[in-house]
Amino acid sequence: MKVLVVGANGQIGKHLMSDIAESEQLNGKAMIRKTEQKPYFEELGVETAIVDLEDDTEAIAKAAEDVEAVVFTAGSGPNTGKDKTIMIDLDGAVKTIKAAEKAGVKRFVMISSFDTTREAIQEAPENFAPYVAAKHYADEWLKSTNLDYTIIHPGGLTNDEGTGKVQAAAEVERGYVPREDVAAVIAASLENDATIGKEFQVVSGEQSVKDAVKSL
């Protein structure tokens, strides 16, 4: 399965591209914003497409023309304002969903926030609420489509070395999880059709990634 990773140059994205490069079932294509980001992926032997998420839907769809799955793991980051949150985490996500539909891609994996319920928006700190709201509506948009979606809600992200062990379920107690392990969960979800139509939270735990994903 050839996978377009949107946000491939991000921290989760880079781990995911490495996992895909080592997978026997997956083949990766990195969507990146800048030409100077290409060498990292060329060293992995990964194809690249240079597209900005603020470009139009057609540009994203063109990058997705030759793939069978799309992973959205892009994010505006914690130091941007509400404008970038709207343009990347909401509009960028929706454009990517529309682009997948336009390109005839059925499989879509969304990396969301840990809790994107209506209640979470109301309870979020003022500076975090716009991000939760953006993720909430992007998730809802994806669920309203006919795409074979999976929505992953990771806990607090860390740069610790991955353990290869997580806890994954519709609801888990809030906790932390290394970005490296989130990437492994994405790859395992792509390799397991039983995750289609499901959304789940994931934090560090005691099950191997593959067993945790298989148990969903």
TrEMBL record:
All copies of domain NAD(P)-binding, residue ranges: 7-192
InterPro entries: NAD(P)-bd_dom, NAD(P)-bd_dom_sf
Organism superkingdom: Bacteria
Pfam short name (any one): NAD_binding_10
Protein name in the entry: Putative NAD(P)-binding protein
Organism per entry: Salsuginibacillus halophilus
